[in-house]
Amino acid sequence: MILVTGGTGYIGSHVVVELLQAGQDVVVLDNLSNSCPSVIHRIEKITRRGVTFFEGDVCDRGLLTDIFGRHGVSAVIHCAGLKAVSESVRKPLEYYENNVYGTLSLCAAMQAANVKKLVFSSSATVYGEEASTPYVETMPRGVATSPYGTSKGMVEKVLEDLSASDAQWSISILRYFNPVGAHPSGLIGEAPQGIPNNLMPYIAQVAAGSLSELSIYGSDYPTEDGTCVRDYLHVVDLAQGHSKALTHLQHGVHHYNLGTGQGVSVLEMVESFMAATGVKVPYRFAPRREGDLPAFWASANKACQDLGWRAEMSLTDMMIDTWRWQQNATQDTATS
Ligand code: WQD
């Protein structure tokens, strides 16, 4: 039995689908702070398999101990956490409590239950603003630009120290680049509350008419078209990376970039969306957004060599799946 924390969230729900489809049994723990319980039924609809769900928090040691004891958990994929960069600047204590203390609580409960296999959701942001691109796993962590990023780097260090203290631990740290898209079924995807901060859901909401136009932050960066460059990957590819990381867990702690290895600019994203869907996305150029780096992408070689994983889905897939999900979400709101 695999425990997925944050299993009703954007990334976690796709991970649960991949695990179930790979034949694993899954128990989900989520506090529903940024997701809703109907996701479980949607996962069951996609996979035609059952999932055991606990509403609760990773900071609740008693609940964790109970889950480990009752469900024979052999490994944990830890996706639970807060992830909004700008919110983390306003609410650092919440970010450190959820992301750092939450992981300490989880690891302590795992140790007590003798469950020492862990896959952890980290972020490319841990490379910091000084790193040269492409980011390679052998580079040291840098100074993160937000409490969110710092919390991910702190947890990485905790896991490294834990592994150094006890050779029985097998830990994979997955550093996500920019996950986008939704499940091709249209049943699960990202459901940001309020106005989205991230590019892809913003584009989708402009296309749907819920927002009037996209502001492209910065047109004078030292990139080919002057807009920022990122490594966008399809969330289903990302989820498969977790499944591969789980089956290839080895003793010690191992860091993997999960990205395509290709940089794509903001303007290319907008154009690709319009070409794939035929829907116009009005945009205007706006000043740079504070804290944005001009360009970064992954070296994706290590995950390929060690895990046999590489991102397979195209930019067009990312756009079409985002749009299908957005249209379903708009319909749901219109009929509910
Ligand atoms: C991408 C590009 C913006 C919105 C963040 C976190 C990272 C990870 C993913 C994880 C940038 C531009 C955006 C808009 C725009 N978080 N943009 N107009 O900042 O690369 O990464 O999200 O959990 O840790 O740092 O992603 O999608 O916000 O922005 O022009 O309305 O799109 O300036 O260049 P980012 P993003």
Automatic annotation (TrEMBL):
Keywords: Carbohydrate metabolism, Galactose metabolism, Isomerase, NAD. It catalyses: UDP-alpha-D-glucose = UDP-alpha-D-galactose. Gene3D superfamilies: NAD(P)-binding Rossmann-like Domain (3.40.50.720), UDP-galactose 4-epimerase, domain 1 (3.90.25.10). Pathway: Carbohydrate metabolism; galactose metabolism. Its cofactor is NAD(+). Coiled coil: none annotated. It holds the Pfam family Epimerase. It is an enzyme of class 5 (isomerase). GO terms for molecular function: UDP-glucose 4-epimerase activity. InterPro entries: Epimerase_deHydtase, NAD(P)-bd_dom_sf, UDP_G4E. CDD domains: UDP_G4E_1_SDR_e. Its EC number is 5.1.3.2. Residues 2-259 form the NAD-dependent epimerase/dehydratase domain. Belongs to the NAD(P)-dependent epimerase/dehydratase family. Homodimer. PANTHER family: UDP-GLUCOSE 4-EPIMERASE (PTHR43725). This is UDP-glucose 4-epimerase. The gene is galE.
